[in-house]
Amino acid sequence: MLAAHYLRAGQTVFLFILAGLLLLLFVKKYWVPWVMQLTLLLGAVEWIHTLVSVAQMRVELGMPWIRTAIILGAVAMFTLLSGLVFRGRALRIRYNVSSNNTGE
Description:
This protein is mostly helical. It has a domain at 28-94. The chain is built from five helices and no strands. The chain has helices at 2-8, 12-24, 32-60, 66-82, 89-94. Helix 1 (2-8) packs antiparallel against helix 2 (12-24). The protein is elongated and about 50 Å long. The two termini are 33 Å apart. The mean pLDDT is 91.
């Protein structure tokens, strides 16, 4: 969804970066979950920024904004909570994540 957001905004560089990050999921290294979680956190921040910008614009134009804010807020929350997937046991095993990983 975030890649589509950037594509719509004409920011194709971010589109390609996010597509590249998807390929990173095939790399079985302990640091991959951290990169993905950081990406999802930054994605949630971008959705919040978009929420504020769109809501502010709609208020200034006298248009309804609450439904838009709820939808974008839900997308931001979904994006943020998606990072928790990488804390699950199966993915910790896949990426060889343990509490004492300090390097390779």
